[in-house]
Amino acid sequence: MTNEELYQVMKDGFDQVNQRLDRMDQRLDRVDTRLDGMDTRLRTVENGISELTGKQQAISGMRNWITTACAVGAIIISIIVAIFK
């Protein structure tokens, strides 16, 4: 095998390797794109869960205020009834 033939064989081999690497790069780019999409969707879900948790805590807080207001109202009514009776 001459130097020129050896050079051509090696060049063809490197060209094939480069083609495979280019295909791998394209696949990795598609995977990155999919992962970015998944990240966006998961961020949306996370924000939704945070909003629901916040609303649930607000409702719980409102229940506490309503209970407190009813208790204070009952005390005031009891005092008024005790004074006028």
Structural class: mainly alpha
Number of helices: 1
Largest sheet: none
Order of helices and strands: H
- The whole-angstrom Rg is 36 Å
Spans of at least 5 consecutive residues with low confidence: none
The total count of strands amounts to: 0
How much of the residues is beta strand, in percent? Answer: under 5%
Structure notes:
With 85 residues, this protein is mainly alpha-helical. The model has no long low-confidence stretch (mean pLDDT 91).
Summary keywords:
single chain; 85 residues; mainly alpha; 1 helix; 0% strand
Topology:
Blueprint: H1 3-84
Short description:
With 85 residues, the protein is an all-alpha fold. Helices cover 96% and strands 0% of the residues. It has one helix spanning 3-84.
